[in-house]
Amino acid sequence: LLGERQLARERLEDGVRLSGVLHPSIHVHCLAHLALLAMEDGDLPGGASQIDQAMREVDRYVLGERPAMALAYAVAALSHARQGETAEARAAVKHGLWLLEKLTGIGAGLIADAGLSLARATLLLGDVSMSRMLVREAHRIVARYPDSGVLPERLTEVERMTDASTVPVGL
Q: Residues 102, 108, 113, CA angle at the centre, nearest 5°?
């Protein structure tokens, strides 16, 4: 996502339509990104529907142990946390962190993106220290990649949120 939200949305929708059963992991990634875009645009029900569909695909194709699914679990955690589904959010955070720890040798943008989504979810769940740790890690990653699209903006936003004196209600 390089800042062109509408173009990104169109490409991700194409990815969802084209990947289907032939490439379920791509299907999940596209749905997770679409869910994140929807939530960032204030469409919580739409984002929840998309990430729920993505997680059904994770279950259907037994993708839950693949480290690259960290983003899907991170977005699911954020969605559940924003809906007040604390138990589901904590379970998704726990699994997402486990997958994130195993995510090596793959695009740094995916790691930072998943980390920032987990940071937002843990902040909503009241774990400011975990959120700050995830923000520090994302900051380290983004600093190494000057052409990281919208990640620096998202990082700045989440950093602001983790300032204990300015944690907004409902993120």
A: 85
Q: Write the pLDDT tens digit of every residue in 98-151.
A: 999 998 777 788 899 999 999 999 999 999 999 999 999 999 988 887 777 778
Q: What is the pTM of this model?
A: 0.90
For 65-85, the pLDDT digits (tens) are 999 999 999 999 999 999 999
Place of tokens 């720890």: 101
Give me the residue label for tokens 């037994």.
62
**Cβ contacts of residue 66 below 8 Å, gap of 6+?**
25, 99
Burial annotation 80-89 (CB, 10 A radius, 16+ → b, else e): bbbeebeebb
Residue 160: alpha-carbon gap to chain centroid: 18
d(CA 83, CA 7): 28
| Residue 69 near residue 25, CB atoms below 8 Å | yes
Q: In whole angstroms, what is the distance from residue 149 CA to residue 46 CA? A: 24
Instruction: State how far the Cα of 112 lies from the Cα of 119, in Å rounded to an integer.
Output: 10
70: which residues sit within 8 A by CB, 6+ positions away? 96, 99, 100, 103, 110, 111, 114
Please report the DSSP string for 99-132 in residue order.
Answer: HHHH--SS-HHHHHHHHHHHHHHHHHTT-HHHHH
Which amino acid is residue 149, in one-letter code?
Answer: G
